[in-house]
Amino acid sequence: MPTIPLVDDVYGHIGRNLMEDHLRERMKAVPVDGPPTSFAPIKPSTTYPVGILGAGAGGLYAAMILEDLGIPYKIVEAQGDVGGRLYTHHFERDIGAPFNYFDVGAMRFPKTDSMNRVFNLFDDPKLNTPDIALGSRIKRFYFVGAGNNNTLLSYNGITIRQNNQPPLTDDVFRATDVVKDTDAARYIAAGTKAIVDDVIRPYGKALLNDLKDGTQDGWELMKSVEDHSTRSYMAFQYRPSSSLGLPATALPNDVINWCETFDKSTGWYDRSFSETVLEAIAFGWNPDPSVPPPNWFLVEGGSNKIAQAMATYIEKQKPDAIDFNSRINYIGMGKDGSNNIMEVKIDQRATSYKFSHVISTLPLTVLRTINIKNAGLSLMQSNALRELNYGPSVKIGMLFRTAWWTLGKDKDGNVLNIVGGQTYTDRPLRTVVYPSYGEVMAGKTSALIASYCWTDDATRLSALMGNDNKVLQEFVLTELADIHNVDLEYLRNQLVEMKPWSWSNAPYAMGAFAFFGPGKFKNLYTALTTPAGGNAFHFAGEAISVRHAWVEGALDSAWRAVAELLIHSGADEATRKKFTDNWGINLEWVTSSALVRRNAPTKPGDLPTSHLPVLKNPRLDTTLFSLESSLLVHQLAAAEATAAA
């Protein structure tokens, strides 16, 4: 497997510093003097495999790692296929086949340092044998419309092409009618894009400078606003740069609402400001206008092909690796003689699984619906399962007879000529995503994401979804017709099939992706990065990573869960070395001083191994990561020492 590059990125920088600060506080309770603390004796079971709960991206990735290390495992999956939120819906009719599908879940991947692990997976030789060939499916995604970018902006009853925007002072979208609690003219002259950029700039720029200069200033600045939502930061702490020509005060509420409408989705600004900053950087924000935006990619055939590729490889090595259609109803600690085990029970089965360790990649929302009262969770971990937020998201896919948005004409006789990209609106559909796969330049792909919504917009639209979607279908067609200025009856005749999907209503997801509220990274998130169940129950999934809503987050969390398992099962040196040689390092879990490519001096309160007598235990040696020290080692050591104190 190609080595995963040791390149620091903003997510790794945030995650690492988050854990370092958390551990400095936690280790105040660890006894520094006296005899070394040690783990309770561990007798690794050679009888029972590792249980992996969920066959989504994280679960399959964990299985690939364990397969490579020669550690037995079993994947338990509630549904009849792999993928989880790597879900691609294929329409029943074959119009436009083989491109008669849309990605209900993950659909696009930016080529940035923050996404190294997922692109490394695309290139993994094990997934690029002639019968799998995942890498050959990676194609360009048109985040911005191809050609002249004829996609649309439609706000306050006004629709224009994105390639034909008039000067801001023209107030084409009638902001004066919605910004009423202040003199609107100066804000309109600045524009929502410039204001939002100015809000993010000090934090995004400082974080990127941290990576470049080996400093911590960006982290300290970001930490100072961790308890803010985006809305509260803009309303109370933000002060506009003088270059915008705005009053030197925080933003009025109407201006904040106006910015949110054009920048994100309804209610987005009520979530963590940290999430907004990280999201902007992930999507290519950079203070230097000369830096080109990232290239975006998709998986031809749908993102479920990622899961299928991993599953095909896994099942070639172990045909019975995945137990499908097995809904878990119980996870608890048990005994096998003197060995600690984890017991997992399945609906309508008399027998249960016995595992040496369990890695749960289930969404936290779903995990709460399972009986885990005997799984050994701390109170903080139980609270984290309840309190950490998932965001709602809706997609409505439609298959048409033709790609009317490319080949069709509007009511004025103009050819629409939209190829790829996205139309944005304040109407209920919010975002229309045009296909980037297949022969889109020739208008041969006729599957459209008619609506992609988040937060409150998704919650409201999902209320129209049910067994009979006729009302929803007519509503969506009417909205599409109005936005694109085409005849409604024409679209009715063009429509072949519709597939609406709400992730909040999906029983095995209960939310689209982790989307934390203010302050929830500090204690709740960190609680789930330590195993429960006597160190045999490990939490994974994109929520247990700072890379929320990205497949990369699921993969990184699976890496961390396997690393925990190796530590607590007493893996030998050869296994530990193979782990890091073949699967790289997770930079969320490497101390700042151990990043050899950075020149920053050790800061006061850093975490060298000498601070913890517990680290004298040979099973906690830091050779597991081939670096000076690991935050994961400190996290596990501090948990043990605190419990023993």
UniProtKB/TrEMBL annotation:
One of the GO BP terms on file: amino acid catabolic process
Superkingdom, natural source: Eukaryota
Alphabetical list of InterPro entries matching this protein: Amino_oxidase, FAD/NAD-bd_sf, Flavin_monoamine_oxidase
Single GO MF annotation: L-amino-acid oxidase activity
Residues covered by the Amine oxidase domain: 58-566
A Pfam short name: Amino_oxidase
Gene3D superfamilies with a match to the protein in the record: 1.10.10.1620, 3.90.660.10, FAD/NAD(P)-binding domain
Name by which UniProt lists this protein: Amine oxidase domain-containing protein
Source organism of the structure: Mycena venus
